[in-house]
Design a protein that fits this description.
Elements lengths: L3 E3 L2 E7 L1 H18 L6 E6 L3 H8 L7 E11 L2 E10 L9 E9 L3 H12 L4 E9 L12 E5 L5 E2 L15 E5 L1
Parallel strand pairs: 3-4, 3-6, 6-7, 7-8
Antiparallel strand pairs: 1-2, 2-10, 4-5, 9-10
Helix pairs in contact: 1-2
Length: 178
């Protein structure tokens, strides 16, 4: 892994794929144990979580379903604090156990909006699974049930995360160099 350039920014290696894979397997193991006997709906938040969701579901041994919603809240390297729904819910959520799969939770605003919608739609239980969590940026009051890496407030790309629509395809995670 070397320093890479995306648009006008430099990014250095941060988390190699091998560590991502280990955390993903650990999270899947916890979900398999906690939800044994249930048939959860995994709800992947696009675009960022597509790689994590795909790898996570490879290790889920439960009977389950997967669906996707597409939300946007970033412009460049900053959160706009405005969550836009680009592709909405098309599943019957009422009475279901739902696992929301997210790539990263920082302020928590996007997830808060998703959780409110799921509650309004009558979800029985809702669990949150994220590969990365920014505890110093988190400003909400809900539980994150399954967390991979706790990270600082730096901007990262790779493994589904982008900078102005580029970098999602990188298998490793990179951190911005200021």
């Amino acid at each position: 892994m070397n320093v890479i350039h995306v648009h006008d920014k430099k990014f250095r290696p941060f988390i190699p794929f091998e560590k991502i894979e280990e955390e993903t397997k650990r999270i899947a193991w916890e979900i398999n144990n906690d939800l044994k006997g249930q048939t959860p709906l995994f709800l992947s938040i696009l675009n960022g979580s597509f790689m994590f969701a795909a790898d996570l579901l490879k290790h889920i041994t439960l009977d389950c379903e997967i669906s996707f919603v597409k939300l946007a809240s970033y412009s460049g390297t900053e959160s706009t604090q405005n969550v836009r729904q680009l592709i909405g819910f098309d599943e019957d959520i009422y009475g279901r156990t739902v696992v929301v799969v997210e790539d990263i939770i920082d302020s928590g605003l996007t997830m808060e909006r998703v959780l409110e919608q799921l509650k309004d739609m009558g979800a029985h239980e809702v669990y949150v699974a994220t590969l990365m969590f920014k505890p110093d940026a988190f400003k909400r009051d809900y539980e994150v049930h399954y967390k991979g890496f706790d990270i600082g407030n730096e901007f990262i790309i790779g493994y589904g995360l982008d900078y102005n629509r580029q970098g999602r395809n990188l298998k490793d995670i990179y951190i911005i160099e200021e």
